[in-house]
Design brief:
The protein is mostly helical. It has three helices and no strands.
């Protein structure tokens, strides 16, 4: 029988990895489409935030389940890795939002002059 919280921990790891990989993949795919520009990769930011939030919630759930279980180890490293990847994904999304904001500001200032 599996330890409590292992499926949530694995889900957290998968969601965290998806949150970290989504935006770079979206940027990479802009190279192969003529109608899809680099700026359009910004539409993947909400997906990155969603994956990161799911990773953090699942990691919290896995750690709580393993904390109340007698058979689970004291520290769930998979859940910790999922949480770290989820937070990293949220940081990537925040930096992408800042980059889009600066780009928009520069476009606005450039169009006025």
């Amino acid at each position: 029988m599996a330890a409590p919280g292992t499926s949530a921990a694995r889900g957290s790891l998968v969601a965290g990895a998806a949150s970290v990989a989504t935006l770079p993949i979206a940027v990479y795919l802009t190279r192969f489409s003529s109608g899809y520009e680099l700026l359009h990769a910004g539409f993947a930011i909400p997906l990155v935030v969603a994956f990161g939030a799911v990773a953090i919630v699942l990691a919290r759930r896995a750690e709580r389940r393993s904390a109340v279980s007698l058979s689970a180890p004291a520290r769930n490293n998979v859940a910790t890795a999922g949480r770290i990847l989820g937070v990293l994904g949220l940081c990537i999304a925040a930096s992408a939002l800042v980059a889009l904001g600066v780009y928009g500001l520069l476009e606005y200032v450039g169009s006025r002059g």
